[in-house]
Amino acid sequence: MTSVIKTKDNSGIGKSRFCLYLLIGLLLSACGSESQNSSFNVVALNGPTGLSLAKMMNENRLEDPKSQLNYIIKNDPELIKAMMASEEVDLALIPFTMAALLYNNDFPYQLVGVPVWGSLVLVGYDTAITRFDDLKGKKVSVLPRNMTPDIVFRHLLEKHALEPDKDLTLDYTFPTPVELSGALLAKRVALGVIPEPMVSQALHQNPDIKALIDLAERWRQMYGEEVPLAQTALMVRKGWANENRSKLTKWCRQYAEAIQWTNVNTKEAGRLAVKHKIGNHAEVVASAIPRCHLDFEYGFEQKETLENYLELLYTTNKKIIGGRIPDEDFYYKK
């Protein structure tokens, strides 16, 4: 009887130990490996940002054929904002000003890098406009209020002694580059601020439309590299980044290489852009690439100059970035 009881106890202890060891092994395995989910979502705004992703979209892999990347291109930044609010997206490419604003409003995303460094141009039918002074009394259509195009244009106007909304009228009827380009082509708008490659496409489709003032170039002439015109921000969802650090590093490396390839192989990049519905004419998109200023830089490596830009935005109107300059945690560190 004693022997039976002892055998029963040993069996129970053995099973308990086995379950305990199994549980510890599973926990250690989980802690020592990245998320096994091979799928993640990347959303980007149409325009130069979408163009920067054309090669990535075409390959749709992460050095591992099993890695499924879902690329989504949106015309309206507000649609991307909604996706970020519900954490549907792991990587988001959005206007830099929106990135700071969302971070300061507790969206669980961090800045990974900047791939687009200014490609804004004032275009229109009035070829008499060659200087900012020529805009007095004019009506100019601008992309969404408090987004990068609006802020850059307003700042440059003020630097040239013009008071926005007083010396000229700023119109926000058409909130996306696609809509504003369409309005220009339909002659519903006489003057507008749009990015490449939409600029080149508009000029190609209607020769009466002219590039009047290169805003990005004027910005660079004024500030040089001290205050860069960071147009687009690559943001990563914190939870996904914490579970997939090496995957994120690989993706960023491939993205940087894809941008370098795009800058060199403009004709092929133009073809890929049309294939993925980022542009309408391959040759026109190809000609626009040098003016898109594509170059991926990690945010934390450019922290000093980006903070100069953020300070300028804060001084201009602190509400556009959420009332304060983002703190150290804004910058994802690889």
> What is the structural class?
alpha/beta
Oligomeric description of these chains: single chain
Instruction: Give the rounded overall mean pLDDT.
Output: 89
Order of strands across the biggest sheet? 2-1-3-10-4-11
In the CATH hierarchy, the third-tier topology of the largest domain is known as D-Maltodextrin-Binding Protein, domain 2
User: Major β-sheet, in short?
Assistant: 6 strands, mixed
- Low-confidence parts, pLDDT < 50 over ≥5 residues? 1-11, 15-33
Q: Can you tell me the overall shape?
A: globular
Name the beta content range: 15-25%
| Main CATH class of the largest domain | Alpha Beta
- The CATH architecture of the largest domain can be named as 3-Layer(aba) Sandwich
Number of separate structural domains: 2
Q: Name the CATH homologous superfamily of the largest domain.
A: Periplasmic binding protein-like II
Rg, Å, rounded: 25 Å
What series of H and E elements makes up the topology?
HEHHEHEHEEEHEHEHEHEHHHHEH
Helix content: 40-55%
* Number of helical stretches of at least 4 residues: 14
- Kindly report how far apart the N and C termini lie: 64 Å
Q: How many strand elements?
A: 11
